[in-house]
């Protein structure tokens, strides 16, 4: 006690304490990459309403079929929805080891009053390229 000022207490290592675990790398699925790419293409006015993913296969290919529902509210947002509808079928997605074989707007619901609102349902087919 009276020598504490001469010999300060140094922190010591306890072998029994667990060391912090290293950060694990999170692998992002092709479906998540697709969703990120579509929402980026859709713009900041789009609100994601739903996303579903279903396995898909043919005799020669395997992949997943995705359905994405986006909602736009307001005149400016509806203009962005129209831009998405024009760009989506020809857009080149860059998703590693995956090919977007088909991308289309399969449903459009539009309301004008009291405020213009558009709801788009997108269907996309991803094929494994690996």
Structure description:
- By secondary structure, the chain is an alpha+beta fold.
- The chain has one domain: STM4215-like.
- About 20% of the residues lie in helices and about 40% in strands.
- It has a four-stranded antiparallel beta sheet with strand order 1-2-4-3.
- A hairpin with a 5-residue loop joins strand 3 and strand 4.
- The longest helix is centred in the N-terminal third of the chain and has 13 residues.
- The chain starts with about 30 loop residues before the first helix and ends with a strand.
Brief summary:
Helix content is about 20%, strand content about 40%. It is an alpha+beta fold and about 130 residues long.
Helix content: 10-25%
Query: Into which percentage range does the β-strand content fall?
Result: 35-45%
Q: Give a quick account of the main beta sheet: strands, pairing sense, barrel closure.
A: 4 strands, antiparallel
Task: Encode the helix/strand succession as letters.
Answer: HEEHEE
Please give the order of strands in the largest beta sheet: 1-2-4-3
Structural class: alpha+beta
Query: What is the alpha-carbon Rg in Å?
Result: 25 Å
| Mean pLDDT across all amino acids | 88
**CATH A-level architecture:** 2-Layer Sandwich
CATH level 1 class label: Alpha Beta
Number of domains: 1
Poorly predicted tracts of residues: none
Cα shape:
flat
In DSSP terms, counting alpha (H) and pi (I) runs of 4 or more, how many helices?
2
CATH topology: STM4215-like
């Amino acid at each position: 006690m009276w020598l504490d000022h001469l010999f300060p207490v140094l922190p010591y290592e306890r072998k029994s304490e667990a060391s912090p675990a290293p950060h694990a790398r999170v692998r992002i699925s092709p479906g998540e990459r697709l969703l990120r790419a579509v929402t980026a293409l859709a713009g900041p006015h789009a609100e994601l309403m739903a996303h579903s993913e279903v396995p898909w296969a043919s005799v020669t290919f395997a992949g997943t079929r995705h359905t994405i529902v986006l909602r736009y509210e307001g005149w400016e947002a509806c203009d962005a929805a129209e831009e998405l509808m024009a760009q989506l079928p020809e857009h080149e997605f860059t998703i590693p080891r995956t090919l977007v074989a088909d991308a289309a707007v399969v449903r459009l619901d539009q309301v004008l009053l009291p405020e213009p609102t558009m709801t788009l349902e997108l269907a996309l087919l991803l094929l494994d390229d690996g």
